[in-house]
UniProtKB/TrEMBL annotation:
Pfam families: PG_binding_4, VanW. Keywords: Membrane, Transmembrane, Transmembrane helix. InterPro entries: Glycopeptide_resist_protein, Vancomycin_resist_VanW, YoaR-like_PG-bd. The chain crosses the membrane at residues 50-72. Residues 242-353 form the YoaR-like putative peptidoglycan binding domain. It comes from Actinoplanes missouriensis (strain ATCC 14538 / DSM 43046 / CBS 188.64 / JCM 3121 / NBRC 102363 / NCIMB 12654 / NRRL B-3342 / UNCC 431). This is YoaR-like putative peptidoglycan binding domain-containing protein. Residues 1-46 are annotated as: Disordered.
Length: 602
């Protein structure tokens, strides 16, 4: 025992080994085989006690060494646990395997976490936001520190979460929360730049939110996340500097792009449309040139210095489709030039740059056309002209046929006749001919195109293609098949079909002095497509109406009205495998008389 003033020996309690007390008195003897000689006269009898003490020291040392070895066996010190999993004494590999097994059985780790933000809350699934226990990092943390051979040391898990996924999930669930910051920008009012200064807001900070979740989970499945003041990265002074250094010089004059084939002048208005000086979600402005917007703004000047690539196409000469190869063109690569353009826009003097010209490839190659299966005539349909080929009505039909001739509709595409031809007016080669307006025939530009529409509709109908949009006439005309016919009027009434086959569809048009024909070339999907009609029902008679005489009055003989069904039958292997019903109600067309007395019965 140490006395007062003497330093107490430093002893690690964790490594102390206590030995049993030795016997005293007459029993404190050595074995008779002890070879030690008797003590000399006048000396103390110490050999036996020294031997005992030495033995005790040896036992103590051996015990301490065993305790140290035992406490530090494996790579994870003894006594270490993580979420209740005992990892002490295991190698890191063993500890990782043990921890993974333990975590897989812990139902808490897959249960949703409730995240509260002010007066709202969201339920977040751990798997959706990458919220997991990082096993390797946790084992590495567990391997640190001192052992606890006679106790337990709980090591908290290392938690990982994806801040961006977590932030996106919370914003989706909570909606707009806090106060959005005003993002800095430079916008153009025409060609005049205007600074938009930033203002701080209150919102979620992804890093702060992720840290809060990591610190609380999985011990708690209800976490409160604070809103923080969000400051844009770009300051008001930096926005003003951007106006001075870039925006104002950019629109100070035109930019000139030179190429071997000519020169393109980019006016300030086109520059203002394509110079992007808005910020990202952090409020950082990275100036850039939007190549697509710039191309749209100078489309016509660019066309004069570029050579458009020619797509491969089908030719129907010789009675069957053949492929005509395409050809490469040239294009000014505005996207590649964007950094150089941006540099030139900062100057008010050096504003001429050389064009980067690249090869423009066809959108459709001969090889691609060859894989579309356009090899046979799938269907054809013909209607008769009501007048000779030279009549305005017939010429309108032919004009529409010319615009559609050779059109290729790829698999999955939808064809729109209005979109394909655009407005059918005098400038497009159409003439005045009777059209139905307000329930009666009146002169109008493009009259007769409904007959071409009906012919095209039936050709695609009998090819088995999907009907998307069509509308039969108000009155029945016997030159068309009842129910399965279509009118058209730009832009309100359209005809559309979808190529729902796996093959390309090529539209072929032809005309004679008294007829128009549309054929569909592709690969047959159905063995046969046919039509069955129901009987006509709900038949109504026309009434007589007298109209003022004049050029706008067109007399008619009147037509009965009725309702009828038409069934499109799809056959394969000699069996009808699909039926499609069309129904239409025709009004009775009045008997219009130009001038004279009104003989209608009311």
């Amino acid at each position: 025992m140490s006395t007062a003033g003497e330093p107490r020996p430093a002893v690690d309690d964790a490594l102390t080994v206590r030995l049993p007390a030795q016997p005293t008195g007459s029993h404190d003897v050595l074995d008779s085989s002890d070879p030690a000689p008797p003590p000399a006269p006048g000396t103390r009898r110490t050999g036996r006690r020294a031997l005992i003490t030495g033995a005790a020291v040896l036992v103590l040392a051996a015990g301490a060494g065993t305790a140290v070895t035992w406490a530090y066996r494996g790579e994870v010190p003894l006594g270490v646990t993580v979420l209740g999993a005992e990892l002490g004494g295991l190698s890191r590999t063993e500890a990782a395997a043990e921890l993974r097994t333990h975590l897989a059985a812990d139902a808490r780790l897959s249960q949703p976490v409730t995240v509260r933000v002010e007066d709202r809350q969201a339920s977040v699934k751990p798997a959706d936001v990458g919220l997991v226990v990082d096993v390797d990092a946790t084992v590495a943390a567990a391997a640190q520190g001192s052992p606890s051979p006679f106790g337990e040391r709980a090591v908290p898990p290392v938690v990982a979460v994806d801040p961006d996924l977590l932030d996106a999930a919370l914003r989706t669930s909570l909606g707009t929360i806090g106060e959005p910051m005003t993002k800095p920008a430079v916008v153009f009012d025409g060609v005049k730049p205007r600074a938009v200064h930033p203002e701080a807001g209150r919102g979620l900070d992804p890093a702060r939110t992720a840290a809060t979740i990591r610190d609380s989970w999985p011990a708690s499945r209800a976490v409160t996340v604070p809103l923080v003041e969000v400051h844009p990265v770009t300051t008001a002074a930096e926005v003003d500097q951007l106006v001075t250094d870039l925006a104002e010089p950019a629109v100070s004059g035109p930019l000139t792009i030179t190429a071997d084939s000519g020169t393109v002048t980019v006016p300030p208005s086109a520059i203002a449309k394509s110079l992007v000086l808005t910020s990202d979600k952090t409020g950082r402005i990275e100036p850039r040139v939007d190549a697509k917007k710039l191309r749209a703004a100078v489309k016509k000047p660019l066309a004069k210095v570029e050579k458009k690539a020619k797509d491969a196409r089908f030719s129907l000469k010789g009675g069957k489709p053949s492929i005509v190869g395409g050809a490469d063109g040239t294009a000014v690569d505005l996207a590649a030039m964007a950094p150089e353009i941006l540099t030139a826009l900062r100057s008010t003097t050096e504003r001429t740059i050389a064009a980067t010209v690249t090869r423009a490839e066809p959108e459709l190659t001969a090889a691609e056309l060859g894989e579309l299966g356009v090899k046979e005539k799938v269907s054809t349909f013909t209607t008769k002209f009501t007048g000779g080929l030279s009549s305005p009505r017939s010429q309108n039909i032919v004009q529409a046929a010319k615009q559609v001739e050779g059109t290729l509709v790829l698999p999955g595409e939808t064809f729109s006749l209005n979109k394909h031809t655009g407005e059918r007016g005098y400038q497009q080669g159409y003439q005045d001919a009777p059209v139905i307006l307000g329930g009666k025939l009146t002169p109008g530009v493009g009259g007769g195109v409904s007959q071409f529409t009906t012919t095209l509709f039936n050709a695609t109908y009998y090819a088995g293609l999907k009907d998307v949009e069509h509308k039969p006439h108000s009155y029945y005309f016997d030159r068309y098949p009842a129910v399965i016919e279509s009118t058209i009027f730009y832009p309100d009434l359209d005809f559309k079909f979808k190529n729902d086959s796996p093959y390309g569809v090529l539209l072929d048009t032809a005309w004679t002095r008294n007829s128009i024909t549309v054929s569909v070339w592709s690969t047959k999907v159905w063995d046969k497509v046919s039509t069955e009609w129901s009987r006509r029902r709900n038949i109504t008679s026309p009434r007589t109406i007298t109209l003022p005489a004049g050029p706008s009055c067109i007399a008619t003989g009147g037509l009965p009205g009725f309702t009828q069904d038409a069934y499109r039958l799809f056959e394969r292997d000699g069996k009808v495998v699909k039926r499609e019903k069309f129904t239409w109600k025709y009004d009775a067309e009045p008997n219009y008389i130009c001038g004279g007395a009104d003989d209608s019965a009311g």
